[in-house]
């Protein structure tokens, strides 16, 4: 399959990830960092309470995949987890963003395809990006899995919280801080990094800055275009607090 972008060890494919992933070689990926649609209803609730900015048509179009029920979501995530397990090297790390509503479903889907849950990293957004009007939600969870015994963390290990604000002025509705993604990459320590939901290219950019090879897949061409432009220009907000 021809890449949409390929330069300096960074490769981006435009297409359905479940169609692209089977084209990648078995046991070729030591690190996976994924930010799938949450399908938890949190975004819809926040919009109803006017606690996040009104989404434009471009953002809404991306969230056509964010409307599955629980059974469908678990089935869908299991398809990815099976591909990840085939692709992963022994000891591979898998980091998968989610929120408190979907945590158990994500863990169920991934564990039942052979991955072992090893912990959870918490992204503390401070006050930036908080949603809701009761107990305002200003954190997200990143369950950490391994294929077999986990590859050891460098420098004696890492702490499982990271504090930093959500990046601003990005056309993608769920963009993550590059600083957080780089924190996970430093823990994983080995590329190529696979991001099957590449969005506007945060993971690819973070890998490029760390001089790690990376592979991204994105289904929306507008985001592929944004990611390629960003990679060429070398501009991305780290999101550190």
Features:
241 residues, alpha/beta, Rossmann fold, nine-stranded mixed β-sheet, 9 strands, 21% strand
Tell me what portion of residues adopts beta-strand conformation. Answer: 15-25%
Q: Tell me, what's the shape?
A: globular
Low-confidence stretches: 42-63, 237-241
What helical percentage do the residues reach? Answer: 25-40%
Return the average pLDDT rounded to an integer: 86
- For the record, what is the CATH homologous superfamily label? Vaccinia Virus protein VP39
Q: Please give the domain count.
A: 1
> How large, in whole angstroms, is the Cα Rg?
17 Å
Number of strands: 9
The number of helical runs is 8
Describe the protein's architecture and organization.
With 241 residues, this protein is α/β, with parallel strands linked by helices. It has one domain (5-233): Vaccinia Virus protein VP39 (Rossmann fold, 3-Layer(aba) Sandwich), CATH 3.40.50. Helix content is 32%, strand content 21%. The protein has eight helices and nine strands. The protein has helices at 17-20, 42-48, 57-62, 70-87, 103-111, 178-188, 202-209, 221-233, and strands at 5-7, 10-14, 29-34, 88-96, 116-124, 139-146, 161-163, 193-195, 214-218. A nine-stranded mixed sheet has the order 1-2-9-8-3-4-6-5-7, with helices on both faces. Helix 4 (70-87) crosses helix 5 and helix 6 (178-188) packs across helix 7. It is globular, with a radius of gyration of 17 Å. The model is unreliable at 42-63 and 237-241 (pLDDT under 50).
């Amino acid at each position: 399959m021809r890449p949409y972008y390929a330069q300096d060890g960074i490769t981006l494919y435009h297409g359905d990830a479940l169609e692209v992933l089977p084209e990648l070689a078995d046991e070729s990926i030591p690190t996976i960092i994924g930010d799938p649609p949450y399908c938890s209803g949190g975004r819809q609730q926040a919009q109803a309470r006017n606690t996040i900015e009104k989404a434009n048509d471009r953002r809404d179009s991306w969230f056509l995949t964010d409307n599955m029920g629980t059974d469908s979501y678990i089935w869908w995530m299991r398809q990815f987890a099976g591909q990840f397990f085939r692709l992963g090297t022994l000891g591979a790390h898998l980091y998968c963003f989610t929120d408190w509503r979907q945590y158990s479903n994500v863990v169920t889907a991934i564990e039942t395809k052979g991955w072992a849950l090893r912990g959870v990293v918490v992204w503390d957004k401070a006050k930036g990006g908080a949603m809701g009007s009761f107990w305002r939600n200003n954190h997200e969870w990143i369950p950490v899995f391994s294929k077999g015994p986990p590859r050891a963390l460098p420098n004696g290990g890492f702490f499982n919280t990271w504090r930093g604000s959500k990046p601003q002025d990005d056309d993608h509705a769920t963009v993550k801080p590059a600083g957080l993604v780089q924190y996970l990459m430093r823990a994983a320590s080995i590329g190529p990094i696979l991001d099957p939901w590449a969005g506007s290219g945060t993971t690819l950019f973070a890998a490029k800055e760390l001089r790690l090879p990376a592979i991204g897949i994105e289904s929306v061409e507008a985001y592929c275009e944004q990611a390629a432009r960003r990679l060429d220009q070398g501009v991305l907000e780290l999101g550190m607090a």
